């Protein structure tokens, strides 16, 4: 809750023209934005850097219209997600199962991933690796719900779809993840 209050204060200062407040907001969320862009662009570092820059340009442009209906991080996530998907479509980049292991090498080597891997149980690591083998749309919604701990309402806001659509996508994504994990378990036991 403290972060949300801090964000509201920063936003008010930024809207009033305080550039130091914007730098603070940028410092707070730049790595978050880049790491999410890496996920959404299948690990394309150059595109993720471009997306991150575009995201913060949009933040500057649209911050005065931010209505505080959702937390700032949720609003930012939506901008990161839509900007990433737009760039992926524009540049005709294939983000499918075949390139996930190679594409996430950069992400895995980041300090965030190292910290995450050390802190999580073996099962959670297996799940994280399996998530890289399902389509981006599926891993994104699972990431939103389980890792980012966004509720159905927040995911509805981020994706701009109905609540029933979010529930169906979560159900299908869980099933795809389960199928990948079953295949891995079967291969491991051979």
From TrEMBL:
InterPro entries: RNA_pol_sigma-70-like, RNA_pol_sigma-70_dom, RNA_pol_sigma70_ECF_CS, RNA_pol_sigma70_r2, RNA_pol_sigma_r2, RNA_pol_sigma_r3/r4-like, WH-like_DNA-bd_sf
Family: Belongs to the sigma-70 factor family. ECF subfamily.
UniProt record, GO biological process: DNA-templated transcription initiation
GO molecular function: DNA binding; sigma factor activity
Transcription keyword on record: yes
Natural source organism: Pedobacter endophyticus
Domain (RNA polymerase sigma-70 region): residue spans on this chain: 26-91
A Pfam family this chain is assigned to: Sigma70_r2
Keyword Metal-binding: no
Protein name: RNA polymerase sigma factor
